[in-house]
Amino acid sequence: MLMRLSHDLGLFFYDVVVARFDLWAAFGVLAQFVFGARFFVQWIASEKAERSVIPVGFWILSIIGGLMTLVYGLARRDIVIILPQLFSIFIYIRNMMLISKEKEKKKAGNQTASASEVEAPAQ
Fold it and tell me: Which InterPro entries match (predicted)?
């Protein structure tokens, strides 16, 4: 029984990794690596800050990896990949918009503070 199971598993992995492996499968694997790399970016940033942080690089890798995975799902016509990626990409882009908006507010606040310092009379 164990011999049969190991033989069947060997055939399964041969079919998945060798027989069915094509350019799209290679692209899909690359997409997953890009998507997964975002966790390393987040982990390194959190370790440096000694607190949990989510850097912009995390969201950039999320968008790129998500788009690549979406393309892969469309090429494979796999609804299980397509639908979640469509919704996820929207969330990643929205987070980037919120980060950009926050940076603009900080920049405007710094410019206002600098302008008020210049206008204040010297005593």
Answer: Lipid_A_biosynth_N (IPR011499)
